[in-house]
Amino acid sequence: MSNNNRLRIAIQKSGRLSKDCQELLKQLGIKLNLREQRLIAHATNMPIDVLRVRDDDIPGLVMDGVCDLGIVGENVLEEAQAERARSGNKGSVKKLAKLDFGYCRLALAWPQELGKQDKSWFSGKRIATTYPEILSKYLEREDIDASVVMLTGSVEVAPRAGLADAICDLVSTGATLEANGLMQGDTILESNACLIQNEMLKDAGKLALIDKLMPRLRGVKQAKE
Ligand code: PRP
Ligand code: ZN
Ligand code: MG
User: Fold this and answer.
1) Distance CA 194, CA 196 (A)
2) Of the four listed, 1, 21, 48, 162, which is most buried by Cβ atoms within 10 Å?
3) Which of 170, 178, 180, 191 maximizes ligand 1 atoms within 8 Å of its Cβ, making it the mutation to test the pocket?
């Protein structure tokens, strides 16, 4: 299946970043045969394997060196790094480039019928999120005494389901908030997709391949400007 000499890149299997990731790999000249349902795709013209996984798993895979590179949202990366830092298991990953796709913001939101609210309203409230680390840090920083309810999905239905009073979730077009009758409040974090690398990577062949890909990446970014 896979071979240790091949550079392993983790990308999102299905979701907001997957199309742009595939497009980027193509623009970098990496020829892939991405058949649906396949976890690993082998490049035919370079020693590269692409793993397609859940975006939330990408930082961990790169931190642990299971994959050498990964493309992931800065929001997911920051959450994973904060979680590792807290559990004392600091994985080493470095950001090679900020990419020009996958823009979104992590924002607070609450039921529209409550109307505009300021920070003091959150005191004593329950906020549902998939980003407990980032949210907790924000609440601490802003001195807001709210509790965090961790949900891995369907965060936007939490207020209606009575699981929480408000949410802290990703907003891209705003359609999800709109469809669920939620009003957007403060932005906690702005995020783009980024390219990350395992910092402990020592393999000379892989490092040389990354050095070859980076100027191409800069070229792709410039061509879009
Ligand atoms: C985010 C978020 C909302 C949606 C918002 O999910 O959780 O569901 O995007 O986008 P919109 O403002 O354009 O409606 P994401 O695509 O990251 O998927 P995930 O929650 O499954 O990771
Ligand atoms: Zn996700
Ligand atoms: Mg979602």
Assistant:
1) 6
2) 21
3) 170
